[in-house]
Amino acid sequence: MKNSSAYKLVVRTTCLFILLSAGFSSVRADENAGRRLYEAACVQCHGLAQIEQTRNGRAGWEDTVHKMVITGAQLDIEEMELVIDYLYQQHGPDASDPMRTGVLPFDSPLSKDGLISSENIVLPDAKGKNLIEGYCMMCHDLGRVVATRRGDKEWRGYVKDMLRRNSMNISDDQLNTMVSYLKQNFGK
Amino acid sequence: MSDKNDIKGLIKNYVDNGISRRQFLTTLSAIGLSTAAANSVAKEFAPFVSRKSETKPLPAWAKRVSGTGGKLLVEQLKASGHKFLFVNPSSGEAPIFDALVDESDIQIIKSIHEGALVAMADGYAKATGETPCVIISRPGIPNAMSMMFNAWKDYTPMLIITDDVSVAMLAQDGFEAMDHMTSMTQTMTKWHWSIQSAKKIPEIVRRGQKFASTKPCGPVFLATPSDHLSTKTEAAVIEQEKFSIAMQIRPSADDIKNAAKLILSADNPLILSGDEIRYCQAETELLELAELLGVSVVKDWSASWSKHFPNKHPLYYGIYSATARFPSKVDVLLNLGSRMPLAGSQFRIESHVKLVQVRLDAENLARVYPTNLSIVADLKLAIVDLIEEIKSQSSSRKLKRVANERLEQAKIFKLKNEEVYQSIARKKWNNDPISAERVVLELEELLEKDSVIVSDNDTYSWPIDNYLSYGPDEKDFYFNTGFTLGWGLPAAFGVKLALPDKQVVSLVSDGTFLFSGPQPLWSYSRYKAPVIIIVMNNQSYNNERNRIMSRRGRSYETGRDMVCYLGEPDVDYVKLAAGFDVEGEVVALPAQINAAIKRAIKATRDGQPYLLDMHVERTGNLANSTWHPEYSIAATRKRKV
Ligand SMILES: Cc1ncc(C[n+]2csc(CCOP(=O)(O)OP(=O)(O)O)c2C)c(N)n1
Ligand SMILES: [Mg+2]
User: Fold this and answer.
1) CATH number, domain B428-615, options 3.40.50.970, 1.10.8.60, 1.20.1340.10, 3.30.720.10
2) What is the ipTM of this complex?
3) Chain A: nearest CA to B324, how far in angstroms?
4) What is the predicted pLDDT for the residue at B445?
5) How many CA atoms, within 13 angstroms, populate the side-chain half-sphere of residue A143?
6) Count of helices and strands (H, E) across chain A
7) Separation between Cα atoms, residue A181 and residue B338, nearest integer Å
8) Which residue CA neighbors atom 11 of ligand 1 most closely?
């Protein structure tokens, strides 16, 4: 059962549920207000393309918006929350088009037999594969996971931060499983 | 027997009164002439010897000095008001240092890197308004030029002097020499000059200082062949004051009338203010003008190193943006002494906006932006006149009413702005690694109210701007607009040298620190500069990485930070400081910040510099990445050598 697609679905749906319930609690009635504020505040300094190519959890978008407000985006507290909600809804996990990696770099762990595109990635079978697929692919394709070998501490930092950005709590066991899967297959 | 040229030179020296008759005779004998022959040569040239100086008394502001070129240089620098010389020596400059042996009015400040030396002088100049003098060696010029760029961008007055090869060796592609050495510095100096004789040294130094310190100011570079420094001669040294120009240029009454009219007819005027307010000491007048009209004040994000408007005042709201939500729809933009926002192919100003600019720097006034009214003037005088004219064109009741309305709106905006900043800082309060917001708020609580922040930061420039209080009775702030990193640590030394009775904090990010290297600490230690040095250590070129990632290119797609990670090696800043006998400590956890800052404050009170290696968070894209493209030279070896 653990490697089956049914399991994968369960993980993904559970994650989504946690995410959505966390995020929607603060959504205001006027959904257009968020969009209008986003368009007014962000374009003061830069274009919107870089935002629209990004997927993030609500806490992740909060980081971004906080950084932008500190650097001059004119939003008050309430408005800031509306923009975070808007970004989360439009560019949250499982938004229509997750971030794509394209062709993997020549020295990525899976490129041994020639260059491959991130769409054709098959993860090595091992304990933790389903967790990786379930969680990571909510925001980006697997290319980002397998493109680069990383050290132990770095993988742990990544996984914890991705979960934090999506306000997800998982058991220590699950966290360790994910980290050791990444270490084993894509470690340094 | 010496050659003909030696005798010629000797005779010239005698005739020009550079040496006495007795010296002349002794030297002639020394090169082989009999006493009789020497006497006859002396007699022959006697009618041409210029009349003795005592016969022409000099005015009180001038004095005749005889000695080596080095001595003349020192005497002129004294007459030009220099109390410090910022030095990294060359042996050709020996006569300068010899002259300083018996000189009690000038203190040498040495740095072990010329870039640092110029940044020290830059900090000193910014804090005093004086024109510092930097003395370096020829091969040190390229080092000095790194920080001359910042000085040039900030209009910092500065004299930079070096010795060239001897006259005989000029243009021979000689030792540590190149042709047209002074012109290397051409694009970032107001003037560069090669001095042609020992006698000319005081004159050229005065001229250099005049050019450097006449507003708009800037660096001046002088070189003198080394033999001029050792040649003995006599020349007049003249007080610099006789060559100073106040540049108190008053705007024309017509221009001020028109400017006032435009501003009074505007619904939503906005003031963009810049460093020329500081240069003209017009801070009080700017505040009065803003309050008179209830007009908000902004700055351009990249064009300002000083804080010339109190940042917690309701009328200050930070960084200019053409389409800012507040205040809505600006119709008149009044630029008071700032560079305009970066334009490129697109003006950062809406087409209906009428632009009025007042600047000291005529060259950069209306350089890029089509301007309705351009005024070259001293900012203080211009603002004083503008205030008077506005008062005369409008009734005080009307002015008060409009100003109050605007002020009330501004207060609402400012309050919300402060609330949002505080709420963000609260959320990040316990972040581990430490958030910059927390560091800065702890500083706000613990530092003296009128402390001085010398900042050289990228990512953390904004929290440092937003969370600390600046103003005439609050903190002061120094930065640069050239953004050549490596300025912050040495510049803070220069500021402390200028303001020993102020609490000075050097806030530098790790990338920046490593650009200057720890070398400036040598001067901190040698001269006991009690400055709190805080390294904002995120082991990254954090903002650079975010800018690279924001392009959404291959680095972003693949999650590869190709160039910005600074860890491995994890630089130990406390050890670096210890190497220079400067104490310090690592601050790794948020709960440690407060006590560590207190220890730093205590150490500086006791007269010592103190360094805090503050382990702060990376932010934004790939913040967690420690990956970097690996390469090992050791592994490529075929021989273990
Ligand atoms: C002398 C110099 N070299 C290179 C640059 C380009 N540059 C701009 S920002 C930056 C990195 C700054 O990193 P850091 O000082 O650590 O700032 P932070 O991590 O807080 O963003 C670099 C290398 C520069 N401005 N000056
Ligand atoms: Mg850094």
Assistant:
1) 3.40.50.970
2) 0.86
3) 6
4) 98
5) 24
6) 9, 0
7) 56
8) B541
**How many Cβ atoms are within 10 Å of A113's Cβ, its own excluded?**
6
Taking CA atoms, what residue in A is nearest to B561? A148
pLDDT tens, residue by residue, B404-450? 999 999 999 999 999 999 999 999 999 999 999 999 999 999 999 99
Question: Under CATH, domain B253-414 is a member of which superfamily?
Answer: TPP-binding domain (3.40.50.1220)
Kindly report the protein residue whose alpha carbon is nearest to atom 12 of ligand 1: B541
- The Cα A12–Cα A98 span in angstroms is 14
Determine the topology of domain A2-91 in CATH. Answer: Cytochrome Bc1 Complex; Chain D, domain 2 (1.10.760)
Distance from CA of B400 to the nearest CA of A (A): 27
Q: Please give the Cα distance from B201 to B226 (Å, whole number).
A: 12
Q: Is A43 on the interface with B (CB under 8 A)?
A: yes
Give the residues surrounding ligand 1 with Cβ less than 6 Å away: B 457-460, 483-486, 509-512, 515, 536, 538, 540-544
**How far apart are the C-alpha atoms of A133 and B507, rounded to whole Å?**
43
Q: Is A74's CB within 8 Å of B319's CB? A: no
Asked if B301's CB is within 8 angstroms of A101's CB, the reply is: no
Spatial distance between the Cα atoms of B63 and B58, rounded to a whole number of angstroms: 6
Q: How confident is the model over B161-206, as pLDDT tens digits?
A: 999 999 999 999 999 998 998 999 999 999 999 999 999 999 999 9
Q: Measured between alpha carbons, how far apart are the two ends of chain B, in Å?
A: 57
- pLDDT score recorded for residue B289: 98
Beta strand residue intervals within B74-231, DSSP E: 84-87, 107-110, 133-136, 158-164, 191-194, 219-225
What is the bridge-based pairing of β-strands B232-238 and B62-68?
Answer: antiparallel
Q: Locate tokens 């030179």: which residue?
A: B9
Q: Are B339 and B300 in contact (CB under 8 A)?
A: yes
Q: Do B552 and A50 touch (CB under 8 A)?
A: yes
Dist CA A128 CA A111 (whole Å):
21
Strands ordered across the beta sheet of B107-110: B107-110, B84-87, B133-136, B158-164, B219-225, B191-194
> Could you identify the atom of ligand 1 that is nearest to the CA of residue B541?
13
**CA angle B355–B360–B362, rounded 5-degree value:** 75
Domain ranges of chain B: 4-48, 62-243, 253-414, 428-615
Indicate if B428-615 has the same CATH topology as B62-243.
yes
CA angle B50, B51, B54 (to 5 degrees): 135
- In this structure, are strands B476-478 and B219-225 parallel, antiparallel, or unpaired? unpaired
CATH class assigned to B62-243: alpha beta
State the helix-helix crossing angle for B4-15 and B35-45, rounded to 10 degrees: 50
For the segment A67-89, the average pLDDT, to the nearest whole number, is: 95
Residue B181 CA to chain centroid, in angstroms? 23
C-alpha of B354 from chain center: 33
Q: Taking the mean position of all CA atoms in its chain, how far away is CA B55?
A: 45
Per-residue model confidence (pLDDT) at position B4: 61
Structural tokens at position A76: 């008050």
- Give the start-end residues of each E strand in B447-555: 452-456, 476-478, 504-509, 532-537
Give the sheet arrangement for strand B269-273, strand by strand: B316-319, B296-299, B269-273, B332-336, B354-359, B373-376
DSSP conformation letters of B32-45: T--HHHHHHHHHHH
pTM value surpassing 0.80 = yes
- Give SS3 for B164: strand
Position A80: which residue type? Answer: M
DSSP bridge partners of B234 = B66
| CATH code, residues A118-186 | 1.10.760
* Short-list B315, B308, B312, B311, CA closest to B270: B315
What are the structure tokens assigned to B524, written together? Answer: 């901190």
